[in-house]
Amino acid sequence: MQKILVVGAGFMGSGIAQVSAQAGYQVYLMDIEAAITDRALKDIRWSVERLSAKGFLKEPSEKVLARISPEKDLLSASKVDWVIEAALEEEELKRRIFQDLDRISRPETPLATNTSSIPITRLAENTRRPERVLGLHFFGPVPLMKLVEVVKGEKTSLEIFERGVAFVQSLGKTPVRVQRDIPGFVMNRIFSAAFREAVDLVDQGIVSSEDVDVGMRLGYGWNAGPFEIADNAGLDTCARVGQSMKALGAGHLAPSSNLIERMVGEGRLGRKTGKGFYKYSPEGKRLPWEDK
User: Fold this and answer.
1) pLDDT number for residue 292
2) What's the DSSP call for residue 32?
3) How far from 210 is each of 50, 165, 195, 216, 272, CA to CA, in Å?
4) Among this protein's residues, is 92 annotated catalytic?
């Protein structure tokens, strides 16, 4: 059984851990905060049991859950076949993690990042073997979304790139091959352009966030509107992506409005805090806003 270390047990990391365990991998889920790991394991159990009850799993839920082990440090990187970093969207934090992973892991182990905006090449440049660093950009909620961008850094080897494609397929996901490493990659740049306009229109009072989401679902066939997507990802993550885009010279893809930053300052981070553009129950079910 192949082993995977997922670094970061937040919304994305827990989802990556879950789908990897469902695909038959032994998963080590690491976070420096035990409370975050505990919450992730609880959320994963709820999700797996729900999928099992609907008949979407090929084996008992307990068998899937038994393949996930919590970790408090990166030492398990020395015994795994894949490492996927899913920490906060902060470049310096990710750089430090990759330096440690480069030192601890076996030379042949691919080191992947789930970053949504930071070029892979920048994260790989302080490692001794940048040819094994690649991007695996999952979309959330990971258990439900079928798409993963496989991103080739400037020095990523073709072998590692193709191994990334095969790994994504082994999870039952569809890979999009991103052959050139640019800020935001492909799908996030396209989404960011739409989200920039949507945020600015809402902040100017021209339209409500709910109507934008309805319009994009019914008019353009989106499964979820931009504000629904933002709430799922976390508005703090959206703010970091916007800041990262600006820092990397792609500021034209970030909203000119500071609406997202204001909401983050108010604690409205989206689904994970129970309120964002929408309001949510403790179980994550969307509720009608009675007081915005």
Assistant:
1) 47
2) S
3) 28, 36, 13, 10, 19
4) no
- For residues 166-172, give the mean pLDDT: 98
What's the pLDDT at 168?
A: 98
Is residue 252 among the annotated active site residues?
no
Residue in 47, 89, 131, 137 annotated catalytic: 137
Q: Quickly name the fold that domain 189-286 has.
A: N-(1-d-carboxylethyl)-l-norvaline Dehydrogenase; domain 2 (1.10.1040)
Distance of CA 249 to CAs 226, 245, 253, Å?
23, 6, 10
The second-level CATH assignment, the architecture, of 3-178 is 3-Layer(aba) Sandwich (3.40)
Selecting among 47, 76, 116, 117, the annotated active-site residue is 116
Q: State how far the Cα of 84 lies from the Cα of 268, in Å rounded to an integer.
A: 28
Is residue 116 part of the annotated active site? The answer reads yes
Confidence of residue 290 (pLDDT cuts 50, 70, 90): low
Return the domain boundaries, the chain.
3-178, 189-286
Cα gap 156→255, rounded to integer Å: 31
Q: Is the peptide bond before 141 cis (omega within 30 degrees of 0)?
A: yes
192-196 long-range CB contacts below 8 Å, 24 or more apart?
192/241, 192/242, 192/245, 192/253, 192/254, 193/253, 194/226, 195/226, 195/229, 195/230, 195/238, 195/255, 196/253, 196/254, 196/255, 196/256
pLDDT band at 77, cuts 50/70/90?
very high
pTM for the whole structure: 0.85
